[in-house]
Amino acid sequence: MSRGENSNFLSRALFFGILEIGLVIILFGRMYYLQIFEGSRYHLLAEGNRIFSRPLVPLRGQIYDRNGNVLVENETSFRLLLLVDKKKDIESTLAAIEEVITLSSEEKEEILKKVVKKHSIDAIVVKDGLTWEEVSAIELHATDLPGISLEVGARRHYPLLSKGAHVLGYVASPSEKEEEEDPTLAIPGLKMGKVGLEKYLDQRLRGTPGYRAFEVNARRKIVRDLNQNESLSGEDIHLTLDGRLQKYASEVLSEYESASAVVLDIQSGEILALVSIPSFDPNLFPLGISHHDWGELRDNPYVPMTNKAISGLYPPGSTIKMFVALAALEAGIIDKKTTVHCPGYFYVGDHPFHCWKKHGHGSINVSNAISESCDVFFYEIAKRVGIDRLSATFKMVGLGEGGLEGFPHCKKGLVPTKEWKKDKKNANWTLSDTIMTSIGQGYMQASPLELAVVIARLVGGKKVIPHLEGRENPSFENLGFNPEHLELIKEAMANTTNSPLGTAFFGRIQQEGKEMGGKTGTSQVRRITLEQRRAGQTKTNHLAWKYREHGLFVGYAPIHNPRYAIAVVVEHGGGPRGAIQAARDILLKAQLLEEESK
Amino acid sequence: MMDPRIFHKLFQLNWGIISLVFLISAIGWGLLISAGGGDAHIWAFKQMMRFGIGLGIMFVIALTDLRWWLRFSYVFYGLSFLLLCAVEVMGFIGMGAQRWIDLYVLQLQPSELMKIALIMALARYFHSQSQPISLSKLIPPLLLVLMPTFLVLKQPDLGTAMVLLMSGGALFFLAGVSLWAFGAALVVAGASIPLLWTFLHDYQKQRIFMFFDPSQDTHGAGYHITQSKIALGSGGFWGKGYMQGTQAYLNFIPEKQTDFIFTLLCEEWGFLGGSVLILLYSLLILLCSRVALTTQNDFGRYVVSGITMTFFLYMFINIAMVMGLLPVVGIPLPLVSYGGTAMLTLLMGFGFILNVGLHQTLKVPRLSIGIL
After folding, report:
1. Active centre residues of A (catalytic)
2. In principle, which of A75, A287, A376, B100 could form an S-S bond with B107, CB 3.0–4.6 Å?
3. What is the complex's ipTM, to 2 decimals?
4. What is the pTM of this model?
5. How far A16 CA lies from chain B's nearest CA (Å)?
């Protein structure tokens, strides 16, 4: 073998070779020692070795009203967690737990269902919202209960109880389906917004989960914490709602079986109160509602779980008449002096449409037609204006908009057009349709929120957008209506309540400077048949509750420098009387509260 | 058209080495799939892609002319050194230590490149010296070793600094530096230990403390060693079976896909699996050493022995470390641990070994002292 110049290389390389062989033998020796000689000892150690790591539930943001009063808060609560290791011993563990605290069969069923879903090692919530007795009982028996741990958490509490339930919503544990769609929800003890603001603002309220890793021994007792990442609390939310007004409005409307109301700030579009009756206690939900309670809520014929203020759609009835008048005034078809003769009926072909006043209003102008709610006047001018211009004006003021974009269950009303009828009913628009539309019957539908918004826009002349959050004063675009026309209609609305001939005179606000203006409405649930009319029956008061007409009232206050817009619907009220009284009380209260704050 | 000589050269490559490199890497992929809980997307696929790229580079290096590399070895060293300095300037903090340069496509670890560059530079230097080497001629190569070692130590990367120092020392030894000089160096090194100690970060000092008494603290540094030993020991002779390693799955083993992957192997495949891997490594080292012994030019011999020594050091330090024989210093298991630059440098290194193997009988002239 020929070689390079370095003659030492071979011997020195040999030295390295022997060294390397020696080192490799050491590796083998060590491996033999660990795996064969000490193997069974390490095997036992490995068996006992268990690390649980699990996400921590972040603290949900709290919700405050416009005055900084808390509407949704977190209360300290304890929950019992079980670290599920091997599925087989879950039954005996549960039996041991049951000797200490009681678990309902529903709760046990829920736990077993969760265990099946979990991976080999995880924590599940056995019971949330433990009482002090339960906490101390568990602590006393902790050593007999393998795998359990007590965790301090927060329980959602709604101090308004049923009085803010619909708008605020509630939280509850995610359903199986929700957890499948979003695995980040599968945190033991995490609650998510299910409805209302809790759902609408869920992402912001929820916060970011932290993380905790800890080592447990063979008996699943925590030996020590390995590391912990604190979770980040969710955002606190400040609403435009006034808790006091919300509460008061709920109390006022509680007189009725089924009703709803919305109060808006005319200038800013801030929603001050949003009420739906009957209601429910949202505090039933965070810890899981019982089958019994849920059954009662579900089977109640007055649908307490539905937020009627935003998802109840009603024929707006006569509350729409101001906008028919506005369309006619803006189109130049009438002015304030134009009169129409009302004999009490109006013929389309040979079909009569009646005025609510059997013998008619005689010759009547637009202002009195609004305050006295003459139907024939509006039949006549609607005929002249035509459905195209009517529906355009309705849409312009916000009918059919819904109001709260993205809010759970916020529904949009309906403004019928020729195209709509052709499309949906496959029929041509008729004059009768226009006549029905002019008094807010027929196809017309609106939610109480939409009705409050259209009043705010009519009175303020600006395109306000209703909202529940954010206190900065937004600037809204002008709707471009002639201010004189708006003034005329507002005056007519003021007369509705304040002139002795007005349809709502009896329900006026009598305090000087706090007077309200408004418009009544009734919407037929069932048409009055010809025979009934012949028999002299034009009212439905004595019919069974569910066949009675809905009573509506839309209004604003005070009549000088208006600040508040309101819409009230009393379902099957048999007429607007109840709605008028409720609106009066709420509008007066709003003004008194404002004075109080000053 | 491709040069037909290329095919001839390909045929002549040391396919034994190539097969072993592939086999060991493939074992690594299997382990990475297990470390990812059965999901190859987490680590294994990426590692395979890197292996593919590295393999290409390996073949290119293997088929080039050895003399060309001799010529450019100082330039290679200089560039690596500049990159290493650049880490100091613009490198960002990765895992608390400055080791990476972000090249947007991959994060480059210049200390990895330096391992090869240092060997090349030293090989060229010693290749150009006539025997015996006088003491004064040892100053330039000493600087070649110490400058990058100091920078790497400062990053701080104790493991890589040790490997640079040890593989550099091995080349000094193989180059025929007199044993007296080594004795003197050991004395100097012993005297400078207190000085070096002050350079170490707290966590490095802690790891060394923990090495001597791991039971003292089972939470921090010692915790890793203890857990690694438990996992490894619990594998027994046959192991717990592929993907059945509870300790790795439960995250008892830190960095199970990188530095502690040998623990995963031993937990799942037992003493048997660990032995097979060590034997494969040994065989690979044996084949490489044979190339060094049968090569007739000094440059080639030095390059091959240097790279082989580095490879051995990696293998030994990593396995000894996870078994609690050496402190935890952050050395990956070669070809198996998850990591981009380590894989690329290793395959580059094997490229050079194959290259020398092809040119064993080549006469390589000495170069003058200049840079090129």
Report:
1. 318
2. B100
3. 0.90
4. 0.61
5. 9
